[in-house]
Design a protein that fits this description.
Elements (H helix, E strand, L loop, with lengths): L21 H5 L1 H4 L12 H30 L3 H25 L4 H5 L14 H10 L14 H12 L3 H11 L6 H4 L11 H12 L5 H32 L11 H7 L6 H9 L1
Helix pairs in contact: 3-4, 3-6, 3-8, 4-11, 6-7, 10-13, 11-12
Amino acid sequence: MTKAYDPKDDGAEMSFDGRMSYGDYLQLHKVLDAQSPLSEAHDEYLFIIQHQTSELWMRLALHEMSAAKEAIQKDDLPTCFKMLTRVARIFEQLNSAWDVLRTMTPSEYTQFRNALGQSSGFQSYQYRAIEYLAGNKNEAMLQPHVHVEGVHSYLSKILSKTSIYDEVLKLLSRRGFDVSVSSLDRDWTQAYVADDSVINTWKTIYESPNEYWDLYELAEKLIDFEDYFRRWRFNHVTTVERIMGFKRGTGGTSGVGYLQKMLAVVLFPELWDVRTLL
């Protein structure tokens, strides 16, 4: 009879009294105790975990986006490329998560929807931070967070500072491109407005990629990010419509109607517009 495999025979640590274990390092007691369904509905557990894991991925996205912005400020584009590539992959993961949520039917959702009260993904402060950091500035979106001082001040700080794209435009100016002053020195709390000087700059870069290779690559990294971000928004709309139709959202928005409006938001307008000019 073959002896049963014992991991300690391979040198595996088996005793963790007073020592760091896997669960200790990841604080799994906090993570796995954070699911508290408010109904008896089987699918509420899916709904909670879907959104909690999405928030964890968004936490990482914010970490990487902040690092990418810092790298651009330091003219360290190789590091920026690494971070932006990772952000795009994070949104690929977030997109895949909708496939799991879409296994829930409208009948199953209605079994616990009332338990949600006024809570809504619309109120995700990390999602708002991602939008602000990417450049979709809207001061009105601070309002749902006024009641949480730390969150409100955190978002207000991001709103008042440059976005990743703002820093890219400053980089282009440092490289000698003629970017208009109005794009380089403005009220950072306001949404960016496309500028002819910027589209002309990107046109020059795209027409001579070998000459401006790192800026050309930067442009494509930004497009990758927005591409996956757009897919995430589209999948969000489709999932909501599939599960609850055109009902008003629990947070008071028009639901699908509100999400469809968000599909029209463009983060890096000139990078899309330049493609028509080439």
